[in-house]
Amino acid sequence: MPQIKSIEELQKIREQVKDMINLRVDNEKKIRVVVGMGTCGIAAGARPVMLAILDELKKRDITNVIVTETGCIGLCQYEPLVDVIQPDQPKVTYVNMNPDKAREV
After folding, report:
1. Phi and psi (nearest 5°) for 93?
2. Helix, strand, or coil here: 53?
3. What percent of the chain is modeled with pLDDT above 70?
4. CA distance 82 to 95
5. CATH of domain 30-104
6. Which of 81, 86, 77, 57 has the alpha carbon at shortest distance from 69?
7. Region 46-57: what's the mean pLDDT?
8. Per DSSP, what are the bridge partners of residue 82?
9. Most buried of 27, 38, 64, 101 (most Cβ within 10 A)?
10. CA distance 97 to 36
11. pLDDT tens digits, residue range 13-39?
12. Whole-model pTM?
């Protein structure tokens, strides 16, 4: 790690970290969509499901949603799985998803 040589450098780093923390707090207010992309999920069609979700969000200009992927959720017989997590709401899990269902969600 490089050595900080001035107060200005320290203040610059401080501002960068504050921006990162603010970004994380802002993200906590957004809806999260998590697609199970373990081997079983991919084999069951999770990749087209995720692409359909991303495409639909872009078409509708929805910006308050973060789409991420995760490994195996542990319910392989129900893959592809999609979790929708809204702030201050219980998590909702959708099972046996396909691109058409994903566009509706």
Report:
1. -110, 125
2. helix
3. 87
4. 7
5. 3.40.30.10
6. 81
7. 92
8. 35, 94
9. 38
10. 11
11. 777 776 555 544 556 678 999 999 999
12. 0.73
Whole-angstrom Cα distance, residue 104 to residue 83? Answer: 14
> Which pLDDT tens digit goes with each residue over 80-104?
999 999 988 999 999 999 999 999 9
**Domain regions of the chain by residue span:** 30-104
Q: What is the largest CA-CA distance in the chain?
A: 58
Please tell me the distance from the alpha carbon of residue 17 to that of residue 74, in angstroms, as a whole number. Answer: 35
Q: Which residues of 54-67 are buried (b: 16+ CB within 10 A; e: fewer)?
A: eebbeeeeeeebee
Report d(CA 49, CA 41) in Å as an integer: 10
User: In the structure encoding, which two tokens stand for residue 65, read together?
Assistant: 């949603």
Peptide bond connecting 80 to the previous residue in cis, omega within 30 degrees of 0: yes
